[in-house]
């Protein structure tokens, strides 16, 4: 993802993992990592894509998708595709705006009317509007901008995940307590980082977009990804 909240993070030579668009799967981790608890879920608003299905002709304006390939092509609430409204903020998420858009997946949706959705030119979810985002590791909602920021964004331009310095440090240095403490300190001070969603959790190497077996499948509920060839057989998921 890009640097946290527009502060100039120094790139300290972190491994430059691929910026290709990972494809997604759902692992058995708690869905709260993506939505938070209670009413925060419905306040997460997202990116705009256009499905070829249009049941009654009243299209949502998608001419200005606000991020192209960087935005999510699945709803952040129900993980289904279709007609989506895309947040143009840092989270890069997408949502079903109207009840009918999420009917197939029983999605909670944003609850907008067709008239309301058609009036939206540039959409910001409440998280991006108020600059409060959830840690993609522990799920806590925290300030993400300014001197009081407690969560920081992954440096990859295509990534919308935020993390506490302590959470991401433990993920990046799981076997080195001293190293994790030092990394936590540096990230809190503004150092950029790339989260582990951008390399394979099994072989620890990055994606190779030229080889289908080395495409990454990224979980939508936790910072875990696998190459197609490395995907755990016991998962029961076909990719």
Automatic annotation (TrEMBL):
Ranges of Basic and acidic residues composition bias in the record: 25-44
Domain named Zinc finger PHD-type: residues: 74-129, 134-199
GO terms assigned for molecular function: zinc ion binding
Chain segments carrying region Disordered: 1-65
InterPro entries for the chain: NSD_PHD (IPR055198), Znf_PHD (IPR001965), Znf_RING/FYVE/PHD (IPR013083)
Name of a matching Pfam family: PHD_NSD
Keywords assigned by UniProt, alphabetized: Metal-binding, Zinc, Zinc-finger
Sequence ranges of Acidic residues compositional bias: 1-22, 47-65
The keyword Zinc-finger is annotated on this UniProt entry: yes
Signal peptide interval: none
The protein's name: Zinc finger PHD-type domain-containing protein
Native source species: Triticum turgidum subsp. durum
